[in-house]
Each structure stands twice: as C-alpha cells, then as structure tokens.
Amino acid sequence: MAKRFTKKKENFICEHCSWAVSGTGYTNHCPKCLWSKHVDINPGDRDEECSGLMKPVDLYKEGQNWVLVHQCERCDIKKRNRISEDDDFDEVIRLSQEIADKKMKK
User: Fold this and answer.
1) Which of 5, 44, 48, 51 is deepest in the core (most CB within 10 A)?
2) Which of these, 96, 99, 49, 43, lies nearest to 74 by C-alpha position?
3) 33, 43, 89, 44: which is closest to 66 by C-alpha?
C-alpha cells in the first residue's frame, strides 16, 4: 500500500511541554521541545490508535535536510520527520549534543 498524505491544519497543546502549537497542515511535532504524538498511520490520517508520546531520539542530515527520528514511548515504533524552519533551533542544537553524548558513551 502506497503512503498517502492528508494535509490537516490543526492547532494543539503539546502533551510533553504544554506549548500551544499553531499547525500549518504539515506540523507533526512541537517546535518548542521537538516531541511528537503517535496519531498517524500515514501522515495526516489520524488513524493510529496508539496515541503514545514520541520522544526525539536521533537527528541526522539527509541531503540538505535535517531529519528528526521519534520513538513512541508506548509501542516503540520509530518515525522520521524533517526539521521545520519553525522549530526552536536552540533545542535542535541541544538535542544533537545530547544524542552525540549518548553515542560517545556507548
């Protein structure tokens, strides 16, 4: 089954940091803390019943884009999302340092 995308412009309150997020139709994580919520099977469909919070666990560059990897705290699924220009870049830097520190300790 091919992935399909459903654009949904929705505002929400981040369940991790309580930030009021203004959705753009492409928003899939909180721009303040970078956490997400496991609500989609295919982007924007809101068909996933899990609804677990998704922790940002990895960050890497793919071509010209930075990619954020979220892992669901309930079911452990991992999903990739591009960093948005609306994201708090200080938080992106903090997260990248945290991830690098964890990798160095392994």
Assistant:
1) 44
2) 49
3) 89
pTM of the model: 0.88
pLDDT tens digit string along 45-86?
888 999 999 999 999 999 999 999 999 999 999 999 999 999
Q: Half-sphere exposure (CA, 13 Å, Cβ side) for 80?
A: 8
Q: What pLDDT, in 10s, does the model give residues 9-55?
A: 889 999 999 999 999 888 899 999 999 999 998 888 888 999 999 99
Strand 78-82: give its sheet, edge to edge.
36-37, 53-62, 65-72, 78-82
CA 24, CA 88: separation in Å to the nearest integer? 16
Residues whose CB is less than 8 angstroms from the CB of residue 99 and which lie 6 or more positions away in sequence, other chains included: 57, 58, 59
- List the one residue out of 49, 69, 55 whose CA is nearest residue 15: 55
